[in-house]
Amino acid sequence: MFDSAPLLRDVFGFDDFRPGQEEIVDAVTTGENVLAIMPTGGGKSLCFQLPALLRDGVTVVISPLIALMRDQVRGLQEAGVEAGALTSGNTPEETDAVWEALEAGRLKLLYMAPERLAAGSALGMLRRINVSLIAVDEAHCVSQWGHDFRPDYLRIGELRRALNVPLAAFTATADAETQDEIVQKLFDGSEPRKFLRGFDRPNIHLAFTAKDGPRKQVLDFAAARKGQSGIVYCGTRNKTEVLAKALCSEGHSACHYHGGMEADDRRIVETRFAREDGLIVVATVAFGMGIDKPDIRWVAHADLPKSIEAYYQEIGRAGRDGGPAETLTMFGPDDIRLRRSQIDEGLAPPERRMADHARLNALLGLAEALKCRRQTLLGYFGEQADPCGKCDLCDSPPEIFDGTTPVRMALSAILRTEEWFGAGHLIDILLANETDKIRARRHDTLSTYGIGKDWSRPQWQAIFRQMMGHDLVRPDPERHGALRMTESAKPILKGEAHINLRKDTIRKATRRPAVKAMVSEEDAPLLSALKAK
Ligand code: ADP
Ligand code: MG
Ligand code: ZN
């Protein structure tokens, strides 16, 4: 048997394993095939680096980013471990040194970019040396439908078969579908030993807020955390530049980062962020996997991420050192519309699009959650938890009201206008606003005209937003984003189900709501037509 404790201390400088590390290290060291799912910052690298030292021969590490490999190789070398990387970023001297160490049988860890596997010579080279383990970092990159897909990851299965050595795969992405894909593509479907470890990051405070002057919301959030390192994620490149400027003019040290920048400029930002205290990077999701800074104190989303997994990964970059960290995610109807249309207009097959809508729904459900966000978030990953006391909803529980009546009013207005309009016009109908559009279409004759006057316009906006959040209605890209009813709205419309909504974004109506039949007899044919769909 082996004793990993001295290596842990002497080479890596840690007194104890983090939760989950030890059992993974044991399994990998004894040569089991392993799939380990651990949150970002959970300490996955150690789970293959330590076994690499305990096993004979070389461990080949496949990793998606050159910067990530270089950091790890440098760290290992500084700790006195023989490690090297073969990447397109190498100088000829570096490559020579790696070969020399390999041929002398000294090298313990060989990092390789997946693209290297495409070159025919790589396999021959690896066959000649004593490879005893393959470690795959960020294994979700093998998932064709995930946000980090790397086609060359699909070659890893071939590599495993050719070398016939154990394989250990690591990722922070937890959903069952991605796990299945990893098992299929990396292990040819034969189940590896699985480790699924604690997704909770208790030091990260979770909060969402509906957009209401979003630029000021971001600036206020940053102002309250002046001098702390943070990331602001934006949905567009242009916005990263605009917001970075705004932050600078408020006296912050801030810069932008996105995929349209020159590689050199991006590297400058990465290096500054790693070295400087208190820098804010305003970025698109291009600023991602390679970021290894332990003391990021906050992450703000100026726009809604695309899925609950993306959200989790992005906020997970905060507080890796275990110290307190804060997050704020902003969202509004425009975000929902944008994310839905990105899915609908993408090239994925229909069943994939359904899954993507479901992942977006999970995030929207989190955004509109009525109780502890952490419970909701962990619940999605299959973990149970008590109310956390460290999220905005635990801090101040939202006031909840039975929203069935206004929701049915809104759904009727949608049906009466045959699902051809967006929230703005529908609210005009409900409030009997005599706009030109209302007059032109004779919408003042509808049975729903003016039935919603007991709520104000902002209240209706909040109701429509929550209806989208609960996936009762969806914008249809083929109808310029007109809202269409989904299956899940039908029970509410038919009076078979109730729905609770949050009151926090809704100011009290001055008049008492009149109770009124929301679905008239005339709606019946429409309803049955929909049911038949
Ligand atoms: P992951 O790849 O899971 O996101 P990393 O391997 O990058 O996580 O580790 C995250 C941080 O945790 C690193 O700064 C690392 O040095 C630190 N770390 C890992 N294992 C331990 C440990 N046993 N004790 C203390 N710190 C650790
Ligand atoms: Mg990692
Ligand atoms: Zn909570």
From TrEMBL:
E.C. no: 5.6.2.4
Domain annotation Rhodanese: ranges: 216-270
Keyword DNA damage in annotation: yes
Cofactor(s) demanded: Zn(2+); Mg(2+)
Protein's UniProt keywords contain ATP-binding: yes
Reaction(s) this enzyme catalyzes, per UniProt: Couples ATP hydrolysis with the unwinding of duplex DNA by translocating in the 3'-5' direction
MF annotations from Gene Ontology: 3'-5' DNA helicase activity; ATP binding; DNA binding; four-way junction helicase activity; hydrolase activity; metal ion binding
Residue ranges constituting the Helicase C-terminal domain according to the UniProt record: 214-364
Span of domain Helicase ATP-binding: 25-192
GO cellular component: bacterial nucleoid; cytoplasm; replisome
Alphabetized UniProt keyword annotations: ATP-binding, DNA damage, DNA recombination, DNA repair, DNA-binding, Helicase, Hydrolase, Isomerase, Metal-binding, Nucleotide-binding, Zinc
Top EC class of this enzyme: isomerase
One GO term of the biological process aspect: DNA recombination
Similarity comment: Belongs to the helicase family. RecQ subfamily.
The name this protein goes by in its record: DNA helicase RecQ
Lineage, opening ranks: Bacteria, Pseudomonadati, Pseudomonadota, Alphaproteobacteria, Rhodobacterales
Shown chain mapped onto the complete sequence: 1 to 533 of 679
